Amino acid sequence: MKYQNFYNKSIEDPKEFWELQANKIDWFKAPKTILSKDQYNYNQWFKDGELNLSYLCIDKHINEGFGEQNAIIYDSPVTNTKQHITFNNLHHEVSKLAGGLQQLGLQKGDTCIIYMPMIPQALYAMLACARIGVIHSVVFGGFAPHELAIRIDDCKPKVIITASNGIEIERIIPYKPFVDEAIVKATYKPKHVIVFERQLIVEIPMKNYDVDYTSLVERSPAIEAVPMESTHPSYILYTSGTTGTPKGIIRDTGGYATALKFSMKYIYGVNEGETFWAASDVGWVVGHSFITYGPLLNRNTTILFEGKPIRTPDASTFWRVISEHKVKAMFTAPTAIRAIKKEDPTGEMVKGYDLSCLKYQFLAGERCDVATLNWAEEKLKVPVIDHWWQTESGWPMLANMVGVDLQKIKPGSAGLPVCGYEIQILNEEGEEVASSVEGYVAVKLPLPPGTLSNLWNNPERFRLGYLERFPGYYFTGDGGYVDEDGYVFITGRVDDIINVAGHRLSTAEMEEVVAAHKSVAECAVFGVHCEIKGQKPLGLVVLKHDEVSEEQTIQKEIIKDVRKEIGAVASFRDVLIVNRLPKTRSGKILRKLLRNIADEMNYNIPSTIDDPSIIKEIIMVYKANQIGIHKN
Ligand code: COA
Ligand code: AMP
């Protein structure tokens, strides 16, 4: 079997395997040291190599005669716009914006936050930063000013690049006013805010720190890509952890470029010149790896889609985009398929389009239920491939590597280990468990190139969170098991992280906001099953004993607080008032028990519970409020 041999080679001799892959990208200085250790005794790749991501994504292709190939197709049903951007166009925009950043005083090693909707300027901004070694941190637009402020204080950007506004279904997102609000909230103050103006609906007050994006690009010189060390951080991407403070995942340059080039070919099975579409957002890791850097590195045309799977204008949008732009492989989250399936259960809308260009449909971001996978397979008539990874890994850890050879698809499994990832299922003691036994999903060190190199400002949290739990392994935070054929089944997070519509969120963070409400004595926030979004957060709240306000008013206020502090993306809409919360005798709230009861999972009431009679009360509240599966 081709896959098995290829995979085995990557595990038996990682240095040889990845050196060969690294040779497939253009280095300014080819690496001699393939794998080494950093100051924290953690793996680093291609230490003495030099390269530039922006060069590899743009200039290289122009130099090879592909300047007139489409690099990006911007398709925006929300603004009724389609724009074809060639590598020559991309070069013009990116090299001049990089010149503009330099003129504003940005240098290699400085940081820059990008808070933008899904418009070409977001990609230009990322590539312009990479061109001069400025470390970007893209923040998802669904996060509120408070979340943005936390990130500003952590990564201290000299500049924030934003747009006047974004467009959601029936709603304008005021990006620039959100940035202004975040700057007021943050302790650290950026020097400039570069604003790209689009379809201004509301008047936006200008500030002294504002710089107009368009005129900055117009007046700035185009500059060349600067060689970067392989270990230079290309970006910081914040992701939810188990505490209220997000973690800044650091990505290197050389390992990342090698891994992405490898992924496009061997995992997604796309060749240079073909069209690839990841329907996600630049604010997530998918947007970094497979809207921006991966496809462009591989000289694919990447689709930049500003819309939703439904209601922009309807559930046929995805099929229209695939057919119109000749997409060979597409990637989305199962939640998007569920949303489409709900609107068009029989798949009538699929029939309206010629999808013969589509060879593979990839799904990731959350657990893919078998019904969704089967529906997509039946309607699209192509292999539908669930694959598993996370912000930390930066590229898939489990998949069906179609570019090597298509393996049997087992619905419910996220597939087989991808080259470089020695995945093992461990028990509490860190011992490998037998096949089909559930445990903690861990990856044996060293991790392959392209995975996280550390946490920004917090190497201690990196060590404790990922490396200390099982010495010699990277701990993924997921639970799962391996079957007798080596297929891995991911069963879900083993911590307080939830996945809402493919968006990773921390319930601990939501709990902090709920607990801060003046009427709340104590609370618990956890994820429960949601038919469309996979999971949704639920808050249980015990009020202060002297509370006199209307319960409904309190509930509304709490929901508003979470939206204001964390953002609309939290989808926090359910708060229940209860008399007490189940706890252990030592006072720990039994969140997992609360979740399992809501989802009608098998649950054991722990012997350490303080008062078992609370469980009946909770079940009654769930039923009365039609929570989770207790709808009937
Ligand atoms: N900027 C501002 N607000 C945003 C946003 C953005 N980029 N993205 C989402 N939001 C807002 C939405 O407007 C919504 O606000 P509302 O409460 O006022 O309606 C809220 O955040 C929740 O968004 P979402 O969870 O996306 O729900 P939805 O009902 O708007 O759409 C789906 C549901 C399933 C169609 C949508 O979630 C989807 O397409 N998911 C695919 C997920 C995906 O691509 N994940 C990336 C990982 S692969
Ligand atoms: P993120 O860092 O936002 O990409 O989220 C990563 C988390 O999403 C993982 O740790 C998993 O819990 C979950 N996840 C991603 N893809 C899958 C998948 N294919 N199957 C199950 N869970 C997934």
Detailed description of the structure:
With 632 residues, the chain is an alpha/beta fold. It has two domains: 3-307 and 387-476, ANL, N-terminal domain (Rossmann fold, 3-Layer(aba) Sandwich), CATH 3.40.50.12780; 500-630, ANL, C-terminal domain (GMP Synthetase, Chain A, domain 3, 2-Layer Sandwich), CATH 3.30.300.30. 32% of the residues lie in helices and 23% in strands. It is built from 19 helices and 32 strands. The strands form ten sheets. Strands 5-4-17-16-18-19-20 form a seven-stranded mixed sheet, with helices on both faces. A five-stranded parallel sheet has the order 7-6-8-11-12, with helices on both faces. The mean pLDDT is 96.
Per CATH, which architecture of the largest domain? 3-Layer(aba) Sandwich
Read across the widest sheet, the strand sequence of neighbours is 5-4-17-16-18-19-20
The CATH topology annotation of the largest domain reads as Rossmann fold
How many runs of DSSP E, i.e. beta strands? 32
Number of discrete domains: 2
Largest sheet: 7 strands, mixed
Pfam families: ACAS_N, AMP-binding, AMP-binding_C
Domain AMP-binding enzyme C-terminal: 509-588
Domain AMP-dependent synthetase/ligase: 66-444
Domain Acetyl-coenzyme A synthetase N-terminal: 3-57
Write the layout of secondary structure elements.
Layout: H1 2-12, H2 14-22, E1 35-37, E2 43-45, E3 50-51, H3 53-63, E4 70-76, E5 81-86, H4 87-103, E6 111-115, H5 120-132, E7 135-138, H6 145-155, E8 159-163, E9 166-168, E10 171-173, H7 175-185, E11 192-196, E12 210-212, H8 213-219, E13 228-229, E14 235-239, E15 247-251, H9 254-267, E16 275-278, H10 285-297, E17 301-305, H11 317-325, E18 327-332, H12 334-343, H13 348-351, E19 360-363, H14 370-380, E20 384-386, E21 398-399, E22 416-417, E23 423-426, E24 439-444, E25 454-455, H15 459-467, E26 473-482, E27 488-493, E28 497-500, E29 503-506, H16 507-515, E30 520-530, E31 534-543, H17 551-565, E32 574-577, H18 591-598, H19 614-624
Parallel strand pairs: 4-17, 6-7, 6-8, 8-11, 11-12, 16-17, 16-18, 18-19, 19-20, 31-32
Antiparallel strand pairs: 1-2, 3-13, 4-5, 9-10, 14-15, 15-25, 21-22, 23-24, 24-26, 26-27, 28-29, 30-31
Bound molecules: coenzyme A and adenosine monophosphate (AMP).
Enzyme class: ligase
Protein name: Acetate--CoA ligase
GO cellular component, one term: intracellular organelle lumen
